[in-house]
Specification:
Strand content: 15-25%
Structural class: alpha/beta
CATH superfamily of the largest domain: Aldolase class I
Helix content: 25-40%
Number of strands: 13
CATH class of the largest domain: Alpha Beta
Radius of gyration: 21 Å
Number of helices: 13
CATH topology of the largest domain: TIM Barrel
Length: 392
């Protein structure tokens, strides 16, 4: 069969895509290995006119679409356009937004991890038992030169990969546990480094961002990856970025030392707030003390820090915003960014703001980065919209 896999645009319009959809690459690889003709496209790259051309020339039997909450509008248009081209095309759609997806064309909806469900849908044996049964993506399915990588980038060209799935923490704003689950599954370190080496030697990638939720959760596993990178000499030719938590038991001097030796130049920390009251309310599982320890310690090993914060979570006040501002000033991260809280469907905070009437009554088609979707007890919508960042 001809199988077309599509990544939608974001609701605000076209962007230069950072990386290809890993989910679509994996599904495309599974289908290609089983003899199907596969195309993987991004609507950010081809737009709807280019999409129409692909539909007419490739003539897909199956359309697969992935969508998060910020891509709903484009995903719906992609399904509608395909059905208008051929009402008999079979449509399967997955991604983090699926628990609240409203069908528009009798599409098959997949909630959660989709490899086995996709294989069954295309008439193949669903034989993915563990994470190591999932193949390294066939990157020839896309043109990597058309993707800019996830900033900041120190040694382009850059790409992102995932070496594990799942997160054991239960942050009340996060939809990761809903999609990947709370049990962490780790790929074999050998396979992870094989993919890194393939990207470097076959595709010229010089920097890899490990997009795992918590790369420092399992030290034995992370150290095996770091040591294999060093053994193969990839640390002399490449640079790496990772996501970590600031917990003192997880962010040790030994971890940072080996990470630096392996070529890690930047660590992303999801800190979210400088208020201990807010951290506790969101069930973040970290302390302000640990934050104040983690960032200087990271810098002391020659690694740069990148910290993220969320504005407008339930319980936010002018006082908690001031505490966050003071924390940023004290820890002085290499880079930091902030965004307004988004009530992702199914999360605990989404249920809370819906029940309290604090969520704006707008369709998911209008959800987007940089938008205010909720108010708090103290801060109304206009006060949040007027927030322009932290004055340091």
């Amino acid at each position: 069969m001809n199988i077309l896999l599509v990544a939608p645009q974001f609701n605000q319009g076209r962007f230069v895509p950072e990386t290809p959809s890993r989910a679509l690459l994996i599904l495309g690889t599974l289908a290609k290995q089983r003899g199907h003709e596969v195309r993987v496209e991004s609507l950010d790259l081809i737009d709807y006119s280019g999409y129409d051309e692909v539909l007419r020339t490739f003539k897909p039997d199956i359309l697969g679409v992935t969508s998060n909450t910020f891509q709903v509008k484009s995903a719906r248009l992609a399904v509608k356009q395909a059905k208008e081209w051929n009402k008999d095309v079979r449509v399967i759609i997955g991604g983090p937004h699926m628990p609240v997806w409203k069908k528009i064309a009798d599409e098959t909806v997949v909630i959660g991890e989709g490899e086995n469900k996709f294989l069954f849908f295309i008439g193949e044996n669903p034989d993915i038992v563990s994470i190591d049964d999932i193949p390294i993506p066939d990157y020839s399915l896309v043109d990597l030169d058309r993707y800019c990588g996830i900033a900041p980038i120190a040694n382009p060209p850059a790409m992102a990969i995932m070496a594990s799935r799942g997160c054991p923490f239960q942050c009340r704003f996060c939809n990761t546990p809903l999609f990947w689950g709370s049990k962490v599954r780790y790929r074999k370190p050998l396979s992870v480094v094989d993919e890194v080496e393939l990207l470097h030697k076959m595709y010229g990638i010089n920097e890899v961002f490990f997009q795992d939720d918590t790369f420092n959760l399992n030290h034995e596993w992370a150290f095996a990856i770091f040591n294999d990178i060093i053994k193969r000499g990839l640390n002399k030719e490449m640079l790496f970025k990772i996501d970590c938590r600031v917990n003192e038991r997880l962010l040790t001097e030994g971890f940072l030392s080996l990470a630096y030796e392996a070529g890690v130049w930047n660590i992303f920390y999801g800190i979210e707030s400088g208020s201990q009251e807010m951290l506790d309310r969101m069930h973040k599982g970290i302390t302000v003390h640990e934050i104040k320890r983690a960032i200087p310690l990271t810098h002391s090993f020659g690694i740069k820090s990148q910290c993220s914060f969320i504005v407008g979570l339930p319980g936010e006040t002018l006082t908690t915003l001031k505490e966050t501002e003071e924390l940023i000033s004290e820890i002085n991260p290499t880079r930091y960014g902030w965004c307004f809280y988004c009530p992702f469907p199914g999360t605990q905070f989404e249920k809370e703001v819906t029940a309290s009437g604090h969520k704006l009554d707008i369709p998911y088609d209008e959800f987007g980065y940089g938008s205010v979707h909720c108010r708090t007890d103290e801060l109304d919508y206009n006060e949040l919209k007027e927030f322009r960042g932290f004055s340091l």
